[in-house]
User: What shape does this take?
Amino acid sequence: MDIKPMVLVIEDENAICNFITAILNSNGYRVVKSNTGKTGLSMAVSYNPDVILLDLGLPDMDGVEVLKSIREWSKIPVVVVSARGHEREKVEVLDLGADDYIVKPFGTSELLARIRTALRHSPQSMGGELNGTEKITIGDLEIDFAKRLILLNGNMVHVTPVEYKILALLSKNAGKVLTHDYIIKEIWGAYADDSHTLRVNMANIRRKIESNPGFPKYILTEMGVGYRMAEEVN
Amino acid sequence: METLEARPDPDAILDKIRAQQEKDSGKLKIFFGYAAGVGKTYAMLDDAQEQYRCGKNVLVGYVEPHTRPDTLQFLQGLPALPPRKILYRNIELQEFDLDEALRRRPELILVDELAHTNAEGVRNRKRFQDIEELLNAGIDVYTTVNVQHMESLNDVIEDITKIRVKETVPDYIFERADMIKLVDIEPQELLLRFEEGKIYRPDQAQTAMLNFFSLDNLKLLREIAMRKAADRISNENQNERRLSQKLANTKMLVCIGPSPSSARCIRWTARAADAFHAHWVALYVESIESNYLTEEQQKTIRANMDLAEKLGAEIVTLSGHDIAETVSEYSKLSGITNIVVGKSRNKKTLKNLFELDFEDKLISFLPNIEVYIIPGSTVRRNYKKPRKTLPIKKVNFSWLDFTKTLGLLTAATVLGYGLRRLGIGDQNVIMAYILSVLIISRVTTGHIYGVIASVVSVLTFNFFFTEPYFTFNTIQAGYPITFLIMLLVALITSTMTVRIKTQASLSVQRERRTEVLYEINKKLLITRGLENIVALTNEYIINLFGRSVIFFSVDPEQGEAGSVMQAPEDVDGSLLNSEDEKAVAHWVFLNQKRAGAGTDTLMGAAAFYMPVISQGKVLAVLGISCLKGTLDHNTRLFLRMIASQVAMSLERQRLSDEQRSIIVEAEKEKMRSNLLRAIAHDLRTPLAGILGASSAIRENKNTLDEKTCEKLNGDIQEEAQWLLRMVENLLSVTRINESASKVTKSPEAAEEVIAEAVGRIKKRFPQRKIIVSVPDDLLEVPMDGTLIAQVLINLLENAIKHSTDDSFVEVILKKTGEYALFQVLDHGKGIADEDYPYLFTSYVPNGNKSSDSSRGMGIGLSICMTIIKAHNGTMEAYNRSEGGAVFQFSLPLEGSE
Assistant: This one.
């Protein structure tokens, strides 16, 4: 497509705003900026951007509130920019409907990857695309949804039904972080609340698909938040 | 000079405290009159209407329903509290509803009749206690009282009116009042009102009142009331300047005993002490006779002690056989300036012929002390001194003692015969008898055997050994004197012996008490920790009194139950932790007064509750089960002594806790400032680098070649990375709970934490090889994952920085027993010996060491140590024999909440 995707950056720190704009512009995005939550909201309405990059620490209102009011009317992908060490905040914004988060300070590649992922998972681009896919391949790992199979280097990996469900869930959302609660609810239902079981299952999965579970390639841990399936393995 | 001025004026501080207290507690205004009908209630309601119109939140708590109609008019418009109805022996009584009043919390409440005694079943026995609670809750109170209800004036009034007023209020309530309004009318006018039936309705019984309402009485009462009010005003005027001096100068002592006239002495002393603003002590001397006191007398003593305490005396109990001597000793030791004694003893006893009167003795012992003698009560003569019951009680006849007496006397007689046979003189026979009397007094219980033996020995001596033999006649002229002397010697000997014996037993008792106290004190001194103090106290109380005990170290309102200890022979102690009992304990915490069984407040409780007070603060409340009956005065006194020891101990504990926390705080502060200093120093270097490099690029855009530019950019990035890591380390320190230096732990998969750390390190050092090995089984460790990841990042970075670029770094996770062991290994040059002792401290001893070298480790490692310690883990470092260093830490697998 010719039309460049538009990114709305809601961020009050000019220095960060500048360097984000520089990166995004040079990587083929259009950028609109807002220094406050209020103008950010009205810009989100008027520009209808493809992705919103939202900083949580805004001068006029809490970023979480901005996220809430955006989610009232729109499913525009929102990537939250947060400071490290606030797991609870991250989980909160993810539960409130943020698509992803990125921790300050971040590098160029990380930022671009997050925005790419968010765009890919956006409702416009989803368009049934993923639901129709039969299989996903990440590095040497292949997940065949039609046959409900996990293949590693072409060899079948034996997984339990629950492990398959977790893998399927993560791979369908590859590149996106899924919170512990979200995964537990998706796999075991609304009333389960046992992060221990999830950890055990995750450890088992890693021992089956990762060459070194202490340094995983496919399923990455987001400390205190959740898990993320890598999109590509380098 | 300046420092002197800057020193706060203690008086000013006192004033401040007082003002604070005044702000906290409500104000009391008393409408004070000399008789019923002077218009106290009227004045009170009038005032309240005024306040109400001014917009104050006024509530009529209780006004006597028998109030005169024209007074009742004033009630109109004021919000009133419905009285609480209490059924007592099928009579419905109306009482002031204290709890509702406390719940409503008006600004001002009106409660009529301060001296009223509440019906049974109400929390407090007396209304003034209700009012105190209201005041403590910060509610202003208006109340009314007549002069005859003042405790200290009680007997004065009685003398005048011949009517004993039973409902009294202690004087301190009066003292506490912020305002006293004297309501006064001419006695003639009052009488007129009375005759018109305005004061008492015609249907009320009036006979007693008729006596009371005589013109003379009213005049006198009026005078007393006015004088009381005037005293107060003059006190107020003098208070500020003289109070402290006078306190130091005068100290009064009143001797109390089982006689009811003691009460009069106590009241007199209270008034006098009040006038002098002096401390006063009520002293009771236990002597031999106190063992033989009747039930009634013991009750009187208790009542007297309670009275004295209520009037503000310090109660002291001593024991000694000679009351005068004991009193004088005590007075000398505690600097008493005035002594008050009652004089109501019967003068016509034999003893008084030989002994000085008590007060004379006192004066002779203490020539410098003023002694006041208060005559015995003349009003009540219906009281009979139960002297006569004493001897009956004393003679506890026993055959054994009788046989002993008889045998010894016979032996003396036989010995006398023997001596006589040998021709050794009379004087030896007398000696033999006296010896026998002495022995009899020693081996028998009570006076009586000694006395009988004395008389009998004189008689037998007369009968057997004086001419003419075997008659009671004597012919020799000197013998009557011999008999008399012999009798006296025998009597004195026996009395002395008995006295010494009793003295000994008394002192043994006292000794035991002192010993126990000393023991408790000693034990408490070496006891550390609140729980141990509580346990020790409980144990002692159980051993001493055989009753279950409960110890509240915190107000039960805050949800904590007291620690109960069950006495073996007492009923179930768990009862003491019921809600009702807790409410009583809570009351004690709030009001700093004793309550529960055997007291005036909440007497329905199962236990007696006593506050443990130190410096005006209730540190704890002790409850002693009273299911076996209420505690007697001695026990209470003893308990109070124990309580004061416990208070000291608790106070000490509190201080030491405080001190410890101060030390910890100081330590933390020191650590923090050390850290800050180190950081400030360390932050400067990279910032200088960044600034330098960036300005170099900006200012020399055209002259710099591409390669230099690139290098400078790389430097900026590197320095910024370093800064970032530093900031993250600092942030992680703030995650450790400030006060307890504890972290919030939740189970985490150890491998995930390692993966996180390695992942982040990989982003910065993508070219370095890191080998991670984890056990086959998932290892879940309770921890703060972010912090442990931070530790691993620090260790990994150190390892990478201190080894060559081509070598690899290993991370190993193992399970060792109850611990998870994390190891970070490198293949570098290892840890230098001189660095070793300071590895985990932010303190770098070598000040001249370049800041650059401390950059790699120093603060990072000390923060790691802090984090691991907060996890109750251990951390160490060593060099491997094959080269390279190992940094490892282990975290306990148990302990997640």
Chain B touches chain A at residues 724, 728, 731-732, 735, 747-749, 751-756, 758-759, 763, 770, 772-774, 776, 778, 780, 785-786, 789, 811, 813 (CB under 8 Å). The radius of gyration of chain B is 42 Å. The longest strand of chain B covers residues 617-625.
